[in-house]
Every structure is written in C-alpha cells, then in structure tokens.
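thread: overnight batch results

M.L. [08:02]
morning all. the overnight job finished for the chain we discussed friday. pasting input first so we're all looking at the same thing
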Amino acid sequence: MWGGGPARALRRALALRRRRAAAALPGAAGGLRGVLQDYDRKRQLKSSSTLPVSLIEMKSNMFTVMRSFSTSHSSVDSDEIKKFQLLAHKWWDEEGEYAALHSMNDIRVPFIRDTLLSMRSNYHLGNPLSGIKILDVGCGGGLLSEPLGRLGASVTGIDPVEDNIRTADQHKSFDPVLAKRIQYKSSSLEEIVEESMETFDVIVASEVVEHVADLEMFIKCCSQVLKPEGSLFITTINKTQLSYVLGIVVAEKIMGIVPEGTHEWEKFVPPEELECLLESNGFSVKTVSGMLYNPLWGSWSWTESTSLNYAVHAVKSGAQAQAHATDTQQHSATAGTAGTVPDSTV
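M.L. [08:03]
and the structure it wrote out:
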C-alpha cells in the first residue's frame, strides 16, 4: 500500500494532472514496468517449476507447517491498531496519507464488480450488485465500502479500530442511500464468526492481510462466514526484494509516500503462500493479477508482474464439494483404522 506523506505540497500541485493520468500512464510507468518484467524473468528462472514434483509439494507444505506453529488466538495485531489509530481522522483526505487507497478504487472496484457480474445471469443496470451481501474486513474509514454500497450491495464493514468506525459512520451519514445499505461494526473477523456463519456472498480484504497477526486463522474465519460458492477478494503486497526496496525504503523512508513504519516486510505475503492457505481452507483460486502504482500520477494499473502488489479472487467450495471432502476424510480415517491391528491382539 502506498498512501500520502510529507510530499503533500507536490501532490497538491499534481492533483489536477492526476485526472489525465490514465492516458499518460503507459509511457510514464514504462520504465518501472520494464524493471518489473525483467525482475520477473530472472525470478522465473529460479522458480520451483524446474524442481521435481516432490520438492514443489514440500515447498507448498512448508507454508502450512510454518503457520501451524502460531499460538495466536486473534488475527488482530495490537501494534497495527496503534498505527492506524493515529490516522483514523484522515481517511477521507484524498491528498493525505490514504491517497493511494482512494486512487486504488479506480481498479479494485471494477475488478470486484465485473468479476461478480460475470458469475450472475441477471442483474439490475442501475444497481448491479443488488442482493449481494458483502463483508468488508478491515474497512477503515469506508473507502471501499461506500462505492460497493453505491453499486447496490448490502455491505457490512468491520474494523478493530473504533475511531475508524466512527469516521466511516460519520461519512456515510451524508448519503441517505448509503446509510441504509452499509452498517459498520468495531470488531475483528473472528469475533463475528459465531453470529455470521455462512452469511456473506462476498468478502473483501483489501490491503489487510499484510497487517494481520495470524494469517491462517484469518483465512479460516473468512471461509467460515462465507457462503458456499461465495467469493473472496484480497489485495496485498508480495514478499520480494523489490517490494522491500520500493515498498518500504523508497515509499516510506525516502519519498514519504506513506508514514514510516506502516509496513513490515516480514509480514508481506507471497502469492504462493496465500494460494496454499486458501486451497487448504476450501477455496479455489481463480485469479491472481499484478497491480502497479505510479507515484508520479497517483494512479494504479494492472500488470502481469506480481512482484509488488497483487489481487486475488478465490471461490469457496460449494456444499456438494464440501460434503464430498468430508466423506473422503471419514472414509480415509475408517480405512486407516480397519487396517490397524489393535494392541490387545498383538
């Protein structure tokens, strides 16, 4: 995630030019895009695709094993709450610390909308997401909840930072339509699991998973509150050398695009690890797309490279598939027991 920072004077001067950024982006971002493509080519030469299948499986299993040692009982990181508490009143400043999240809506909202519409046979043109219940996890001040609500969705936004929820509630109150379609709760994801089992058609977790304390628990809770065949949308940051240089050194320490200390590179999530966790919790990953931020124009675009930011769309297994998986596990357990000689007969 890239937000606003000390370079506010420069950003204000460029505010009008940003409206024209879409046409100029391919040329302006060409240099950085070339760097990303070259980085990906080199990374692919060292990728696990050249490894024996057994080693690839070992690599996938390694992610799960590493997560299984977590002793956390909550996905919420108290240190992360303190960071966002200080900025809770700045969510709707389009030239402030969350400027990049405002501009990210230009690509993440159409991504969510178009993906969902491709899975529906009928929808209302004026309110294309009408009838869809969306859970916006880590909603902050409501930057993503509001445009989804305007598309007709019924949105529940949750965030553990109470001041974020106050800001979100206050801002939606200016629009009577949104006031009816959106509700906010100061809560963590695991706190609403019991009351919301298989309640939502869609879950959105945008720029969230790189801040959670227990990613495996987070994904598991997403599966629990999502309906069978429901969609999960995630945007986050890859864990690469390039993401450390550009996402932390340049963005935070040099340019001040986001406040220093916003991100911890150790908590960035490689797409391979995220896919592994999703699949082990009953999801089928449908899309993984790279995202590129142009700090000069303050705009986002899609790219083939996932070396920096990326978006994921995954679908939870349907009821039949879940029942089949349960039957298979029970059959395996029964077969294993039947083939074992009881100690008392030895």
